[in-house]
Design brief:
This is Primase-like protein. This protein has 348 residues and is an alpha+beta fold. The protein has 2 domains: 228 residues, no CATH class; 102 residues, no CATH class. It is 31% helix and 24% strand. The strands form 5 sheets. A 5-stranded antiparallel β-sheet has the order 7-4-1-5-12, with no helix packed on it. Strands 9-11-10-14 form a 4-stranded antiparallel β-sheet, sandwiched between helices. Helix 7 crosses helix 10. The protein is globular, with a radius of gyration of 22 Å.
């Protein structure tokens, strides 16, 4: 099922901009709100429904999008912090989820000079051509962001695509890293709690100089092949990355996560006080030990830590204190367990 996740704040989530002789001047940046209500949209079936939904959402400045999945650690109708990692005084509220709606943040792509009021499609086409043929041949919804100037040699926009299958947020982020330079894509967009603003800026000294900030760009196909993102991401995974050290041993983050294996999934399912579960901390220790024994430094340890955290907060337990769950999922606790398991069990 395709859907958007939204956060609702008490104040409008928009920039305030003053019109000056040679362009824009930011008066007030996006407000730093701490608490939000989480919402899930209705099902989004095609690019036309994407356009309709974002058009309506842009008229509600107190709303913004996020990629994360709302967790049931706190009620949906409660004002909560937008946290992927829990804090001492607040549990995580957004987790990872598979994505079937792709949002691209184009942040200052150099283009041939264009009058954005008369020929905005020319600017968008230049971006699509830069992204490559699958994108240029697929319908998308475009929304010009607050930095876009009316007479421009750079493009600032969000492009929305419907994918033909689901892709993980981590895969999209790795792909975006490979297009950061040539297409000016912003990879920071692909964090579960990162706000994606949709409301237009509020202008002082005149009305918005852009007559229309959004529109549907129709093409030959209505869905984008997700394999174009998976294939580039797989190639990028093989590039050398810095290793992180636990207990003096360099651990490679590049390889698959242990929980993608049958044994890993079996241990993951045992976390919790539910029927068939084995509790929390003891099972986490055994899961990490098994990962070190079977895969050693080939584990993607950082991803494994995130998956353990999500599992703990998803299953939860009314019999367990919040501080206990926060402590066993902290970096200090998990890093110590990984270092110990690597010393005892890792063969490579």
């Amino acid at each position: 099922m395709r859907y958007f996740v939204m956060l609702e704040s008490r104040r409008p989530l928009r920039k305030e901009i003053r019109l000056v002789e040679h362009g824009f001047q930011t008066v007030t940046p996006y407000p730093k709100e701490r608490f939000f209500k989480r919402h899930i949209s209705c099902e989004i079936r095609n690019i036309h429904e994407v356009a309709s939904f974002i058009d309506k959402l842009s008229t509600k400045p107190q709303f913004a999008l996020v990629h994360g999945q709302p967790l049931d650690s706190l009620p949906m109708n409660q004002m909560v912090r937008r946290l992927y990692h829990g804090r001492d005084d607040h549990p995580p509220t957004l987790g990872n989820r598979m994505q079937s709606l792709l949002i691209l943040d184009i942040d200052g792509l150099p283009i041939r000079p264009v009058d954005m009021n008369r020929e905005p499609r020319l600017a968008i086409n230049q971006a699509l051509e830069k992204l490559g043929s699958p994108f240029a041949q697929t319908s998308c919804y475009c929304q010009l962001t607050s930095s876009q100037q009316p007479y421009a040699d750079r493009l600032y926009a969000h492009l929305f695509f419907v994918l033909d299958s689901e892709v993980s947020l981590q895969t999209i982020k790795r792909w975006a890293e490979t297009r950061k330079t040539d297409c000016r894509l912003d990879p920071t967009l692909y964090s579960p709690a990162q706000l994606i603003y949709t409301a237009p800026p509020l202008f002082f000294g005149g009305s918005d100089p852009l007559v229309r900030r959004s529109g549907l760009v129709l093409s030959q196909k209505n869905t984008l092949p997700a394999d174009i993102i998976r294939s580039v991401s797989r190639v990028s995974v093989n590039k050398p990355r810095p290793s992180h050290s636990y207990g003096g041993k360099g651990l490679d983050y590049n390889n698959v996560c242990f929980t993608d294996t049958p044994r890993g999934r079996e241990w993951l399912d045992k976390i919790g006080d539910h029927a068939g579960g084995g509790g929390f901390y003891p099972v986490i220790l055994r899961l990490i030990a098994s990962a070190a024994r079977l895969r050693g430094s080939k584990n993607n340890w950082q991803e494994l830590k995130e998956i353990i955290r999500q599992r703990v907060w998803q299953v939860g337990s009314s019999a367990r204190e919040y501080r206990y769950l926060a402590q066993i999922t902290s970096d200090a606790s998990l890093d110590s367990s990984i270092a110990g398991a690597m010393r005892k069990f890792a063969r490579f």
